[in-house]
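Pasting as-is:
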Amino acid sequence: MSIPKAVTASRHIPLVEATSRVLMARQPSLEERMDAGKALRERVPRSSHSEFTRHRTVDPLRILREQAKTRIPQLVPVRHARMLQSPFAFLRGSAAVMAADLASTPQTGLQVELCGDMHVSNFGVFASAERKLIFAINDFDECQFGPWEWDLKRLAASAFAAARHLGGDTGACDAAARAIVASYQKRLRRYAGMGHLALWYDFIDSDTLIASLSPALHERVHALLNKARRRNHLQVLDKMTDLVDDAHQIVEQRPFIVRASHTSMGRPVQEAINLFLEAYFSTLAPDRQMLLERYSVLDVAHKVVGVGSVGTRCWVVLLQGRDADDPLFLQIKEAQPSVLAPYAPAPLPASGNQGERVVTGQRLIQGSPDIFLGWGELDGVHFYVRQLRDMKGSIDLEPGSISSKGFIEYCRLCGWALALAHAKSGDAAVLSGYIGKSSEFEDAIARFSAGYAEQTAQDYATMAAAARDGKIKVAEGTGR
């Protein structure tokens, strides 16, 4: 990139015309950007975000059936079983349904890189390249640019539903949703005043995480962090493999981990993995390529993951480096079009690969992503790659696992992490100017969250009735 004449006195370096227009253009001041956000309230009042009425064309079961058409048929009943564990589980697995619902809600026109499947179970800690533990969003399958309100509304509604799942009354559920919004509002205002580089380098590390929580939670958080530090490739090796003829082999745990001779497309697995890894290798930076070249593939198996992702193609690959004490587990996960795409069309990367869309979004908003993130294509199916487990950890959100006060504090963390993600990809000052300092926006999102939690409970009941009537297939004993 050429250097503008204004910043060098020693010599003149001509600018590329397109570049000069960007670099020499006057950037709006903080006050101007805040005012621009505030002006948006005239067109889209903050109170309007409380509105939710399902459009008559949105049919949750039809949307789920459409999704099933692109998934491995024998795994679709497993997905249904997981979604039917509770209304909260249904919400987690029905991002496509909520995307259709959000499409008709008020929008300011401001866009950010969205997670796309934003809920309170999609946060956790993970290891940065510098081996620090970072708290952030940890699921990016549905990410793409779109209306910032959609992430926040889905997150707040999930907090309401999760609090109810944990046994909270209406007051506790409302407090959880409000904690999300209030934290998002507070942190966004701070990010609005930060320099671009300072914001880019900002993250929530383990020390910052602990300092933000009440002393009553410190012991539990330290335990979670210590557990995450132990969740490395050697731990996976011990948990997922057995020694067979002096070589480690992934152990089957049907239907969740399955050894297969051929892919669902009919290609021999070993041939398929070799072809895919060649394509994936080219998407890595040269230093990562040099590191990966030192490993060789030992074994591969198909693995069922998540709630909403069940039925998509996902492979676990075991590689070995120096010796048996130097394992590397890579997860090759199918990347389908984002559930947001029908409602907020956004261009794909130049490759047209959905896996690259996921990787690009993660790199943009997570702050310190996996060093082995990459993508590829095999037999027309798009995939992305990440390490299976690299000091990753998350909290349990099942009844009895966390107190009401503890959950409220966790919600504040989630709101903070979402604000950081949106600030990295959008304009924090414009967003903050729109939201303001009062509780008007918080009140609106809290009302929306209560309404959407009720809609989710109804959808869950509809799905449960369809399962009882045999209209959808549900696997037995696999809802974990």
